[in-house]
Every structure is written in structure tokens, then in C-alpha cells.
TrEMBL record:
It holds the Pfam family MS_channel_3rd. This is Mechanosensitive ion channel family protein. Residues 162-219 form the DUF3772 domain. It is found in: Cell membrane. Residues 700-782 form the Mechanosensitive ion channel MscS C-terminal domain. Residues 75-112 form a coiled coil. PANTHER family: MECHANOSENSITIVE CHANNEL MSCK, POTASSIUM CHANNEL RELATED. Keywords: Cell membrane, Coiled coil, Membrane, Transmembrane, Transmembrane helix. GO terms for cellular component: plasma membrane. The chain crosses the membrane at residues 236-253, 274-298, 310-328, 355-372, 384-401, 425-445, 451-469, 490-514, 542-559, 580-603, 609-638.
Amino acid sequence: MARRSAQSHRAAERVRRLVIGPLLAALLALPGSGALAQAQEVVDPAATTEAPAVEETLSPPLKQDPYYTAWLETAQRAENAIDANRASNAALEELRAQLVAYRQTFLESRDRNSSRIETLKSQLSALGAAPAEGTEEPADIAALRDRLNAQMRELTVPAVVAQEAYSRADGLIAELDRIVRERQARQLLSRGQTPLNPAGWTAALRDLTVLLRDVRNETVSSWRAARDLNRLRDNAPLILLFTIGGLILLVRGRAWAERAGGYLRGFGGRGTGVWSFIVSLGRIGLPLIGLFLITRAVNASEAVGLRGTLFMNVLPVWGTIILGFLWLGDRLYSKRDQDAQIPLPAAARSAARRGLLYVALLLVFYRAIGLVETVQTISEASRAVLVFPIIVAASVVLLRLRRVTLIEDTGGETIPAGLRRMAPALRALSLVVAAVTPLLAAAGYQTLAEAIIFPAIMTLALLGAVLVLQRFIGDLYVWLSNAGEGAGDSIVPALAGFALVVLSLPALALIWGARVADLTELWARFLAGFNIGDTNISPTDFLTFAVIFGIGYAGTRALQSALSSSLLPRTGLDAGGQNAVVSGIGYLGILLSALVAITTAGIDLSSLAIVAGALSVGIGFGLQNIVSNFVSGIILLIERPISEGDWIEVNGQMGYVRDISVRSTRIETFDRTDVIVPNADLVSGLVTNYTRGNTVGRVIVPVGVAYGTDTRLVETLLREIANAHPMVLANPTPNVVFQGFGADSLDFEIRAILRDVNWVLSVKSDMNHEIAKRFAEAGIEIPFAQRDIWLRNPEALRPAEKGPAEEEGGDEATEPKRADGNV
């Protein structure tokens, strides 16, 4: 398959040389064709020494473009390397880096004149279609059309060249990545020397002996040279200063950090863990600086050889590993209960800290073996023997940590919820890794074992660092916000944890063997965006859209606030009109902000017209109620049949309008409950508005009096009561109506117009109290219902006829008798 791919690339190259080359040469012969070359820098001439045959295939205009010529030579070398598949990974990576640089340049050149091209297209569109063959158009229009077409060709040529080169570079980069990944996979699954072979032990001992002897000889030679040439004396002050400073920081650095922490806690934040975190950084930072100073002192003395210098240069890195794991253990399993990230018994926390220290030492030993391979060639068998004990020891330490550390869920409430959910998976994976990797290494698959055990350990360390940083952000938020004890459970620490997990993904990929080039390639793909039709949408477009829309949205809200608080209250508009204006401004501002953001970001929505047309059919059927309510909301805001604060009755629900939104209206009933009414019901249904336009309304107070009462007296008293109430309008005058003769009473009604109908219940209550008082003073009776019962067939209630046995004195014995002898 790889052979077929190489053949297809060679065929495509021949087509490019024989067909596309002359075509581009003809286009580049137009005025301004050197814009692409002038805009780019010329590559290093050393990179263009190969593949002279490429220049022979170029037409004269392309030969004048040194950047494009250099690009073709680099592309040819890449294709030759892919076909041969013999170059080292380092050479392929270097070649890939050159291709990435070219690809980025072509990507930027591709869209450089896009806005100008769009302008020319609109100008040509304004001229209309070109005349048909055999017809002529006015000379000035024809000249203008030719000039615009020439400018269009002049601007599109660099874009065409850049697009073709970008596609070629992208394909070559993908093939190089494929070759490197296949090599890595083969190396990972290859079987090497087993460390259990005794012959390898002898080779490893011999290689170590040679290394130590060479380092000793180089150090002795360098020491003598530095002493003989007086370099030690010349650099003595600097060496002494660095050595003393480094030793002081190594010995006293942790104590000074603790003292600084006590001083910092005076600024506040006790109990939040902020200063404890900062002090923990100082406990590892100061000794690390001391270690770096000592390294500088040794290098300044020039008393060690080349190999010794290499070891001294990586000493700060090894110190960072050891101190970093010590810091992680101190934060996760602190000696102080309140600072411990994971609550465990004191003995378990101490064992966990020791286990992390052992892990750090094993990682340092593993890196030391890699450095040994750099400074001196050792056999494969020697390396297998040297690395195997480290793998076994790492598996043992991982098993110990599995029993006593974060994977063991103690059931405490303070254990993070995410950690409790991951505990079973971490427990199982750690057991598998610890059990399998020594077996793989013993069987000869040492590369695979190394690619599992050490990344697994580093993954657990990265997880612990994320937990520590998340807790620190939560403590910092609690301290800065002066919030209470429960503020740490807010959304801010949760969002911070999510962000930390996302940011740790690249580091996790690198831990498990991903190349930096893989991550940069993903980032380049992300920045390149994706195509929707003929429109390319990139993250830059999204960012531009978000910024412009955010500015427009904030401006709209600010304008709404200014209108509702300053301008509209000074006008004659009522509250409902003011709300309608503010809501309309909000909807219009959001719509304009979205349109301006889309236009500024360069997102062409014309390609989505067909999709939008198809979706509109589904919207029409599936969302017709929502659309109906939306349109009804717009009608309510424009016509304003109801406004906020109105007292209305709809669908049997009565209350005050509190909010009118696009989809629904919220009504607060007299029971202080909210009723959400769809806007379509308010537009198409029957709605009673008691306060539309004004608050004047009528109150009706019914009352009944006993038969025989002077009706004129009753009418006079009721009219006096109505006129005396302050909420009743004098014009029109209140009216008293004699309704008729009821079943139990003579029925009257007070009908009066109130200044504010919202007080109708209070007015009715006041009038009823006054009626009861005045009627009692006048001796007028307010009757209550009375009923006379007439039985239609009373004989049905009599007892049944008695038998013969009961006729002989039975009645006399059982029924009482009146004085006259009758029953």
C-alpha cells in the first residue's frame, strides 16, 4: 500500500510538472505575479542543494520566485525520503518541520486577498453577465469589465498557487507522520534481549566499569588542567559564592519557607490553605535554587570532564523530579490533617509519602540510564539488565501505593467525588500494570514494558497535581471572595477543575508517547478550521464572532438600562409602553449584534440557504406552537392590549401581569402564585383587562331586607353610604337599584364607580360594614333564608297495619295515651 501511495505521488508530480506548471507560468506572467514571492522570506540556501532537476521543469516566471523554487526542492526531497524510507526519525522530523513552515506560509497567503477578491466579484456582478457571442456592449463598460477581470486574475493567481502548495505540503506531512508512527509501533512491539540471560549481566557490568573509568579519567584530567592553568584560582570567588549560597539554600531553605509562611498568614486567609500551598512551593523552590547554584559552581570550576558536565547539567532536572514528588506527597498526604488532600490514617499517609519518594528515585535512575546511552554506547543486553530492576521495583512500589494511597477509598466525606468515582478503575489498572510489566520485560518486550509502567506512574502523578491545583483554586476563591465555609462547593472550583483537566490533556498525551509534532499538528488543524460549503470557519472566526456579539449584547443591555432608568420615565409613556420600548430595543439590538458579528467574522451563510430551507419546513410543523407564541409576543409588545401591572382575567385565571416575554406572559394571582400563559392565548382568546388605559372601575354591593321594610328608607341609607366612601366618584353619582322581590328578602344593589378598581374588595368590605351598622340603627332587618316543609303524603310515615295477635291490647301496652284517651 505504501508502494502504491509512492507511485501515485510520483504520477501526480508528473502531472503537476507537465500541466499545472505551464498553466501557472502563464498566469504568473501577468503584472503583479511576484506578490507571493515578495511577501515571503527566502529559505536557507543550504536547504535547497538537492534535487536540481526540479528547476529544469520550471518555467521562467516560476524560476524567478526563489521561495517557490525552494519549496519545490524541499517537497521533492520529502517525496524521495518517503519513497526510500531509509532516513532516520530525526532527519524525518527535521524535514517535517520545514514542511510545516511552508504550509503555514501558504495558509496565510491563501486568504490574503480574499476581501479584495470579494469586492471585485461584487463589481463584476454589478456589471451584469458578459454579452453573448456576436453582440457588443458599450466600449466603456467593456473596458471596465476587462480591467476588473485582469485584476481578478492577478489576485487569484497567488491564492491558486498557495492552495496547491498547501495541499501538497499537508499530504507530505501526513505521510511523514505515518512513517514515524509505524516505526514507533514496530519498535514498541519488537522483542529484544531478555534480562534473565546471565550473559547480559556480564556485559552490563563491563559497560558500567568502562563508563566509571572514563568519567574518572576525564575528571582527573580536567582537574589537573584547571589547576595548572589557574582556572580554579581565577574562578574561586564565583565558585565559593555559588557553593556557599547553594549549601545554605539546601540546608535552610525549607525552614525559611516555613517562617515566611507564618509571616504571610498574617495577611488573612487562615484555614483556606492558600498560604500553606505557597509555603509548600517555597519548600521545594529554595532547595532547587540551591542545587542549581551548586551545579553552576561545579561547571565554573571546569574540574569535570565532558561526561561529568553532562551529568551535572541534568542534576537540576533530577532534583526537580525528586522535589516535585516530595511536594506532591506533602500536599496529598500532609502530616497535618487539615492540609491533607486525601484523608487517610497517619501511618498510611507516611507510607504514601515514602512511596512517592521511591517513585521519584526510580524515575531518576531510569533517566540516568538514558543519559548513559547518550554519553557511551552500551549493548542492548546491557540496557535490558540495567532497566529490568527499575521496572520490577516500580511495580512493587505501585502495588504498595495501591494499598495505602488515593486508590483506596476510605469512605470519608472529604474525599473528592471525582476521585471516589475513579477509584475502582485506578485500582484495577494499577494492579494490571504492576503485574504485567515485569513479565513483559522478562520476556524481552522491554520497550513495551517501559512504555506502560513509567507513563502509568506519571499519569497518577499528573492526576494528583490536578487535584492539588483544583483545591488551591477553590481555597483562593474562598479567600478572595470572603465567602463562607460552603463557598468551596460553588461552581468556580468545579469550572477550574474542568479547565485543569482540559489543560492536562496535552501533557497526558506526551506522557503516553505522543510527539510534540502530533500536538502541533492537531493545533494547526484546529486553527485551519473546517469548511461548510465554500466557507471556511476557523477558531479565529468564532472568537471574532464572540467578541463582536458580546460587545453588541453589552451595549444593548446598557442602552436598555439607560432608557428604563433615565430617559423613558421622563416621557409620557406609561409603564407598559416603557416596557414595550425596552423589550423591542433588546430584541433589535441582539439581532443586529448577531448580524454584525456574522458579517465581521466573514461567515457566509449563503451556503446554508438550502439547509435552512429544509429546516424551515420542520420548524413549521414541529415548532408551530412556539412560532405562534413568538409572533403573538411581538404583537403584544406592539399593540399593547395588556401591559405589565394590568389586572386581567384569562382562561379562568385572574391576576396582575408581571412579565411579558417573547414566548409567554407571567401572571401573578391574588394567591401569590405565578401562572404562565402562552402568548397565543392572550392574542386569540378572550381576555378581560380591568385596568386597560385607566384604573376606574365599578363596584356592586348587593343587600337584602325583610319584607315589610320601607323601601325608600333603604334606598336613602344605601345612597348615603355610597356617597360617603372616599373611593367612590361623585360623577357619575352612585346608584341604588331595587332589584326585585326575592324568595326571602327585598333585593337592593349599590352600583358605584371607583377611582381605582384595584381597591374593589376593600370598598365592598367597607360598605358592608357600614350597611350592617346603619341598618341596625334604623331597625331594618336583614333576613336569612327560612323554609316551611309540607309533606305531600304523610300517610307514608305511619306504621304498617298490625296482625290479629297484636290487636288484643297490643296498642294499649305499647303506645302512650293522652288524657282524653286518644292516641
